[in-house]
């Protein structure tokens, strides 16, 4: 729905900006890449978007490059003829992008600081607790690959 449009376009524009900065890709290709990525994200997040509980599903929505190309970025890149090898040359080798309701943030490098790309207050005046959702995503990844029993592993971590 329109609910996640801003977050998704912010995330897609950010990855596109990284590619543009790396150089060597035409504007037309970049535009196509951004649209493909937005489409892929929308599809991927469709049933995993909970504005009332923004941190829910955070690990699932996490976009990650870590010696492995995120499949959604990889898919969009294929549409414009970029191989995974080429992508690895163009994008940071360690990138985590969190796309959550009301907040999009990223980290480059395993120990990099987290930078917020987009933040908006939650409707209903509830104060957002972005740090909480952020650390849960981080913890989940530091355990290793997110296990299928996501909620279980998260509870054990924070408990």
Decide which structural class fits the backbone.
Answer: alpha+beta
* Shape, principal axes of CA atoms: globular
CATH architecture: Alpha-Beta Complex
Number of strands: 4
Largest sheet: 4 strands, antiparallel
- Along the chain, the helix and strand elements come as HHHEHHEEEHH
From the N-terminal CA to the C-terminal CA, the straight-line distance is 34 Å
Strand % is 5-15%
State the low-pLDDT regions, or none. Answer: 131-159
CATH superfamily: Anti-proliferative protein, N-terminal domain
Helix content class: 40-55%
Radius of gyration, taken over Cα atoms and rounded to an integer in Å:
15 Å
Describe this structure in words.
- Residues 91-110 form the Anti-proliferative protein domain.
- This is BTG1 protein.
- This protein is of the alpha+beta class and 159 residues long.
- The protein has a single domain, classed as Anti-proliferative protein, N-terminal domain (Actin, Chain A, domain 4).
- Helix content is 50%, strand content 14%.
- It has 7 helices and 4 strands.
- The protein has helices at residues 5-22, 27-45, 58-61, 71-79, 84-90, 130-142, 150-158, and strands at residues 63-66, 94-100, 103-108, 114-119.
- It has a 4-stranded antiparallel sheet, sandwiched between helices.
- Helix 1 (5-22) packs antiparallel against helix 2 (27-45).
- The protein is globular and about 45 Å long.
- The protein starts with a helix and ends with a helix.
- Mean pLDDT is 82; it is low at 131-159.
Summarize the structure.
By secondary structure, the protein is of the alpha+beta class. It has helices spanning about 5-20, 25-45, 60, 70-80, 85-90, 130-140, 150-159; strands spanning about 65, 95-100, 105-110, 115-120. The protein starts with a helix and ends with a helix.
